[in-house]
Design brief:
Length: about 400
């Protein structure tokens, strides 16, 4: 199916002409499940100009070969109110939230043989986190995956997708949040140094529901994550937080698209990254679309980057597209810089050695967002990982 418009829930067949609405942004000009509908990438496209295509191991051009073994999903017994199953691609839920708007996402949809579904029952209040560990078994050859998170009305749950190991992976994640639900989704990319992952996550948030989305990227050779969200009813909200730390040679890229298409919804995007070492490269691109019908919108996005050594590069591009003046607020900000000399001077003037002072500044830079991760073992592990990276450059 090809749609030159904003995507609607689909039936894996052609849509009637009456279902087609004019495209709003460049990224929405084409949405399709068919790889052939997307032109080959050459790196000059606006959405791909920061991404080193040569490092994608042919995920972008169809010349990939299948991996001998794909990633293994590990999880314990599901808590009461939660079921975890594998379903065939013809399950009606698959593709109901996410219709790919880039070639690699369409490739992942086409090549994935099945989907993993995490379903949370209506009114269930799940007090323990649902943790899925995705363990890569080798970077040789390409793997493809699909995950569907289904949260029922008025449910409350925390779901963690914890990625580790070696892999070459393209995957899609769909997040369907029912009305009045309160959901936290944490995704951790703590891959081995040779891993490559290109991922698209799409959330549809129901009336009066709140999604807290936390993305952490530390490992891998190249990780590119696109998180898009739309609202299915008024008074819905998303808080999207991101933490990333690029070391020498790493490419970590994060993109968001928050589509305000109904009235009285709220979005908040706050991503923070640190970089160190030669050729460390991070990219953050945040897009917020406020359609003409989305009166009463409240939105803000900010990205901050801390460059710790020479030779590292951070690209940061916030964007707002506003089609109505009847909103509560809208704004964006971006900042990239080195250590704050005033902060260092303040700490050193109180007897703290320079190395310890620098470490305290970086800790403070990440602390606010790390504390938003509600799973203590993961929060502690990520804190320790950041500390280990700082020690590499004597901070």
């Amino acid at each position: 199916m090809t749609t030159n418009a904003l995507a609607r829930p689909h039936s894996h067949g052609a849509e009637a002409a009456s279902d087609v609405v004019p495209p709003k942004t460049k990224s929405q000009l084409l949405r399709s499940f068919d790889v052939a509908d997307f032109p080959a990438l050459n790196g000059r496209e606006e959405d791909w100009r920061f991404t080193p295509l040569r490092r994608l191991r042919h995920l972008h051009d169809g010349a990939w070969t299948a991996a001998p073994a794909g990633p293994v999903h590990e999880y314990g017994d599901a808590p009461e109110g939660v079921t975890i199953t594998r379903v065939a691609k013809d399950d009606a839920r698959i593709g109901s939230v996410l219709v790919p708007f880039d070639r690699i996402s369409a490739q992942a949809y086409t090549a994935a043989e099945e989907a993993l579904v995490v379903s949370v029952a209506r009114n269930a209040v799940v007090t323990e986190p649902v943790v899925l560990r995705i363990e890569g078994k080798g970077a040789e050859g390409a793997s493809f995956g699909h995950t569907f998170l289904e949260i029922g009305e008025s449910a409350e749950v925390t779901i963690v997708l914890d990625h580790a190991g070696s892999v070459t992976l393209a995957d899609n994640v769909e997040i369907a949040v029912g009305a009045n639900a309160k959901v936290t989704v944490v995704t951790v990319a703590d891959w081995a140094p040779d891993a490559v992952q290109v991922q698209h996550q799409k959330a549809r948030i129901g009336r009066d529901a709140t999604l807290t989305h936390i993305s952490v990227s530390l490992g891998g050779d190249l990780v590119r994550q696109y998180v898009s969200a739309e609202f299915a009813g008024p008074n819905a909200a998303i808080d999207a937080y991101g933490i990333y730390f690029a070391d020498s040679g790493q490419h970590l890229e994060h993109r968001q698209l928050v589509d305000h298409g109904v009235p009285d919804c709220r979005s908040n995007v706050n991503y923070r990254g640190a970089l160190q070492g030669a050729d460390a490269h991070t990219v953050w691109v945040g897009d917020v679309l406020i359609q003409d019908v989305a009166t009463g919108t409240e939105t803000y996005e900010i990205n901050r980057n801390l460059v710790l050594t020479d030779g590292a590069r951070a690209d940061s591009v916030p964007n707002l597209e506003i089609e109505t003046g009847e909103i509560l607020s809208a704004g964006h900000a971006s900042a990239t810089g080195r250590f704050d000399d005033e902060q260092l001077f303040y700490l050193q003037s109180r007897g703290i050695p320079e190395e310890s002072a620098r470490r305290l500044v970086v800790r403070g830079f990440f602390a606010e967002l790390l504390e938003k991760i509600p799973v203590e073992p993961i929060r502690v592990r990520l804190h320790d990982s950041i500390e280990e990276r700082l020690s590499k450059v004597g901070i």
